[in-house]
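User: I'm new to structure prediction. If I give you an amino acid sequence, what do you actually give back? Let's try with this one:
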Amino acid sequence: MTNITGRVREAFRGDQRVDADALIARLDAVRRFLTAVDGLLPDAELVPAHTLVERAGTRLALSRDHTVVALAGATGSGKSSLFNALAQLELSPVGVRRPTTGVTHACVWGPLEGANRLLDWIGVLPRHRFVRESALDADDETALHGLILLDLPDFDSVQRSHRLEVDRLLGLVDQVVWVVDPQKYADRVIHDSYLREFHRHRDVTVVVLNQADRLTPADLPRVLDDLRRLLDTDGLTGVPLLSTTAIDPAGMVGLRGAMERTVAERQAALRRLAGDVDTVVAGLDELVGSARPAGGPDDRAVDGLNRALAGAAGVPAVTEAVEQAYRHRAGAATGWPLVRGWRRLRPDPLRRLHLPGPTGDQTDPAESLVAATSVPDPTAAQRSALGLAIRAVADRAATDLPAAWPGAVTSAARSRLGDLPDALDRTIAGTDLGLGRRPLWWRIVGGVQWLVTLAAVVGLGWLVLGYALRALGLPALDNPKVGQVPLPTLLLLGGLLAGLLLAALTRPVVRWAARRARARAEQRLTAKVALVGDEYVLTPVRVVLGSYAQARDALRDAARR
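Assistant: Good question. You get back a string of structure tokens that encode the predicted 3D arrangement of the chain. For your 561 residues, that looks like this:
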């Protein structure tokens, strides 16, 4: 996106019309911006935008048929005299005492009833509202019907309440007529504190050099030229600059003509609000900059996060228990039947962690709501590694974003950190570790072990029976031979040796298969833990990045005229 500030560096629009629908669309874009950044950016940075949306909505809803023009000036500039001269009535007090104007006076051309709601919003007291309506005027004042002219207190008043009232009203009126006099037209207060701040409202700004009658015909052009130079320096190039004198009706023709054109155009309110939008957009530009938001953190940061989550979740301890459990269960299924019972007396390693035991059962679901597993808590090093990984994710995701956003991204990444331990524990408890089924080869080896054990038992029984018969003096059994070895002896020794040999041959296979089971469990657990990281860390980060993109697009729309 091109620099928004550059695009709102407006040209003078005093002779251009502002489309009401386009203005409303820009205001809606500002509203969308505020919605997108709600809770993400400092509230203090957003006060002007909130104020704009509220004021603009109220101003457009109250009246588009009235134009509010304020006469603003320093003490002794003669703005109250201009106010009375334009109204052709003595409405605002004029005198040598300073400040003379302590409250705002309003003169309404046309029926007062139609302007009362607008004056209530502006804050002009009813007793200071006047109507410029007389049967003696005939049609003389028709050109100004719809004008609400305000005489503001002096902005350089010694009373702070007067200055605060001026500042408040300058934010509400549609057009400002700045009244300066030959003695103080170059005063730094009006130029530095007011006129320069109105450079984005040039199209609703008029400057009048009042009391021009105090200057000689030769001095007046020189003073006007110098004042124009100062206005150009203030960024007010192109604003109307008039000379007035309240004591001579001819000296009011130019100002009255400017008022009549403003009233006839019915554009002052729209131009003022358009300038307010320009000001707000320029102030918000540095909050969004021109960076395009990334889709999220890069793969390297995500991989680091997944490793840290796996460590904090106890995946190494669980996978080690899986390997031990596999060897334990495989030994109980394929080992020598004479020692299987002894193996079963030893606890299954997974049961110690409240994970699926020898029959695949798990802890009670009611218990899992409190503590799903007994996996050891993460160490300080693992917690530190997780914190650093989350910070790395936020830093990578916020790369190239304006200064206001990395903090929001980091806060989002850490927003559910307190929920991570329970989520990881539930994930570990609910993951299928791949030990629920007994492999077929276990059954085959176990069956063979039972056969050779049975052969040894038969041989042993046969030999015991033969010894018993001989001890009792009974005829001995006829023991067949296999070669030179009696069959009972062969069955006994062969069964024992075969069982031991089969157990010895099976042991390395069990170790290899246990390592594979461990790798398979590690892969499954890592994948499940990654889903937790995506939900609890990456998704909040993506939400903030999405909000940034929405805010950036909304501000771009608000900058368009």
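You can read the tokens as a compact description of the fold. Here is one thing that stands out. Residues 487-559 form the longest helix (73 residues).
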